[in-house]
Amino acid sequence: MFTLTPETADDWWEVEALYDLCFAPGRTALSSYRLREDVAPVAGLCQVARDRDGSVGGAIRYWPVQAAGVPALLLGPVAVHPTHQGEGLGGLLINASLHAARDSGWDRVLLVGDAPYYSRFGFSKLPDICMPPPTNPDRVLGLALTPGAWDGLTGKVTRAA
Ligand SMILES: CC(C)(COP(=O)(O)OP(=O)(O)OC[C@H]1O[C@@H](n2cnc3c(N)ncnc32)[C@H](O)[C@@H]1OP(=O)(O)O)[C@@H](O)C(=O)NCCC(=O)NCCS
């Protein structure tokens, strides 16, 4: 049983520890992290899942970016503690936060990840949107939160102004 709450400043280092546990060493060297440097995450959409004892079981963060010159959300990192993977918590974090993103007026979301996992949430390849190199273009996925929000967009993903 997990409770989702918006991430606060007090949660930051516990979430970092979870990400360090779940991702390969050197995760912050990934090009997606260059889009996050010196930019605040989107308050309210970043969520922490804690069990009854207060332990962090999973977390998700979002950053604002510009994609082809228009605002977009960058989903991630998202991770679930290894002892709780496969129980649906990742899906819960992603669905709940996407819902909140739609409700708060965001039009589009992108991420760098595995299409076989993210397709279940409606994400599909964004062939005309380029993440900073080196990024495998097959892993650049998008979801329109409002109909057609990715249609006709071609260009680079850059840091939010
Ligand atoms: C990816 C992650 C967040 C998923 O969270 P989770 O709580 O384990 O996932 P859920 O329980 O919601 O979903 C489990 C399903 O997703 C599938 N799945 C998980 N990771 C997958 C992946 N990388 N590719 C394809 N399918 C994947 C599982 O096989 C399972 O499939 P099933 O429903 O057919 O049995 C979690 O496994 C994790 O933290 N992994 C390490 C960090 C990571 O890779 N984060 C994502 C970066 S892109």
Alpha carbon gyration radius: 15 Å
CATH architecture, by name, is 3-Layer(aba) Sandwich
CATH H level, superfamily name: Gcn5-related N-acetyltransferase (GNAT)
- Total of domains: 1
Number of strands: 9
The set of bound ligands, ions and cofactors reads: coenzyme A
Fraction of residues in helix: 10-25%
Shape: globular
- Measured by DSSP, the beta-strand proportion falls in 25-35%
- The biggest beta sheet, please? 9 strands, mixed
Low-confidence stretches: none
CATH topology: Aminopeptidase
Average per-residue pLDDT, rounded, comes to 97
Kindly, what is the distance between the CA atoms of the first and last residues, rounded to a whole number of angstroms? 39 Å
> Count of DSSP helices?
4
Protein name: N-acetyltransferase domain-containing protein
GO molecular function, one term: acyltransferase activity, transferring groups other than amino-acyl groups
Domain N-acetyltransferase: 2-146
Organism: Pseudooceanicola marinus
